[in-house]
Amino acid sequence: MSNDEIIRVCVIIVTTTYCMKTVEELEKRLKAEASVSSFLI
Questions:
Q1: Which structural domain, as residue segments, surrounds residue 15?
Q2: pLDDT-derived band of residue 40, with 50, 70 and 90 as boundaries?
Q3: What contacts 1, CB < 8 A, 6 or more positions away?
Q4: Which domain of life is it from (predicted)?
Q5: What is the dihedral of CA 30, 36, 40, 41, to 10 degrees?
Q6: What mean pLDDT is reported for the chain?
């Protein structure tokens, strides 16, 4: 692999890790909102 290819792969891995963490946090917040909203109905 060339240096450019290695850098590209690393960027993809870092981006994927960030997205996974962000989605997990969003899922927790949405579940919390849904449970609060269900009490209001």
A1: 1-41
A2: low
A3: 9
A4: Eukaryota
A5: 50
A6: 92
